[in-house]
Records
---
Amino acid sequence: METILVQETDADTLEVLTVALQMKGYRVCSLNDHDSNILDMIRRHRPKLVLLDCWLGRHSGKQISHWIKAHFPRLPVIAFSCDNEIDREYHHLGFDGYLKKPFDLDVLYSAIKKYVPRRSRHKALEPA
């Protein structure tokens, strides 16, 4: 089971994301604040993808994305944002992709599929 780390300050959005991802078989490590050490969480849970609220308060999503990329350059980070300009700005902010809020679950699943390819059951059962 693949892990996705979600950092979202809005409790309702975080709950919807968590349930939606769990329904698709992902393990979700969620953070609803901006004070947690996201780098420690990544080291501990080894996610395949980070979904990050673009505007987190004290630290911007841009800062956090750059911290993640400095330590985990291959880990994809997707921005969540209400900003209408996010489609033009996400790459300059250090994100690999973006989802505009509010988002459709099919759009969420398509974005995740792009960055977290699912292992087939047969491959998971094969010896290494």
Note: Residues 11-23 form the longest helix (13 residues).
---
Amino acid sequence: MVANLFISWFMYALGEQVTVTDDAIYDLYRRAGNPQFNPTTGADDNGVDNAVLMGAMLLGSSSDAGLDVTRADGSVQRVTISVFGKLTGTGQELVDQMKAATGLFGGVCIAVNLEIAQQHQTVAHPPVWSDIPSSPNWGGHDIFGGRYTGVEGDDEHVISWLVNVGVADDFIRARSSELLVAVPTLALKQAPVSVASGVHWTDLADEFSYLTGRTLDLSTLAS
């Protein structure tokens, strides 16, 4: 989820294709509550509390905060977020907030409770997750949603297991546990240059506060 947040942001804001290695993701996973995680044996693979995960990404939270991304020139850069917040809506209001946040902030971090039905829906053509109340529970899953269609049955599009999956609004209403907005520090640092041309940062901060109830501190903008 977090890797796709940064991959999308670098592509859409800077036109640069970055990658994130498995080792970089494992490192973040360990710092997000699984310190002894072993990807070979599966030991200490306990999932994450997304508040802890985002805290491990937060600028200034620790000396090793963030995630390593590999830039197009092969260099590795540790990237962080400046702020995160949870969308406050419920039901259809949450769906509307999800689409607004996707448009305003480039994407939404989505935590869902998957059903066994999603195993089959993911390999369908096209892959679309929808709510099937009679399907058994499978488990929690974090994904990043980077665009929406406005079509209720195939609306927010997420990346899951390297697959572009459409997600129906009824699935978000029934199966999402939380939706979060995370603002990359680099996004704010780009404010004075052309990539942010036309962005009204005070308005954006107001929108963030409206959607999440938290403050977007514009003092992190580059001078």
Note: The chain has eight helices and nine strands.
